[in-house]
Amino acid sequence: MYIVTGSVTTAVRLSRLLEDATGRPASVVHTPSAIKRGGCSYAVRADDRLRELIRPFCAERDIPVKGVYMREGDSYYAVS
User: Fold this and answer.
1) How many domains does the chain have?
2) Which of the residues 42, 43, 70, 76 could staple to 11 if both were Cys, CB 3.0 to 4.6 A apart?
């Protein structure tokens, strides 16, 4: 799963919070071009099983999220 944010600072903060809260690894990556909406953006790559948690988790911590995407093969689709 890719959680798209607007800055590297937000992505790093989110990845650390996710790892601390869930015990699952999360890493900061450049947003894949297939889901990039112009300009620079960063994404947090996290375990797909956290999909239902992401929106409420970020909302509780005032972390802006531009989109949440899953990957199937070479394709991406938006979730939540």
Assistant:
1) 1
2) 42
Does pTM surpass 0.85? Answer: yes
Residue 59 and residue 3 in contact, taking contact as beta carbons nearer than 8 Å:
no
Q: What pLDDT sits at residue 36?
A: 82
How high does pLDDT run on average in the chain?
A: 93
Which residues, 6+ apart, have CB-to-CB distance to 9 below 8 Å?
Answer: none
- Which residues, including other chains, have CB under 8 Å from residue 1's CB and lie 6 or more apart? 45, 46, 47, 48, 50, 51, 54, 68, 69, 70, 71, 79
Alpha-carbon gap, residue 57 to 42, rounded angstroms: 18
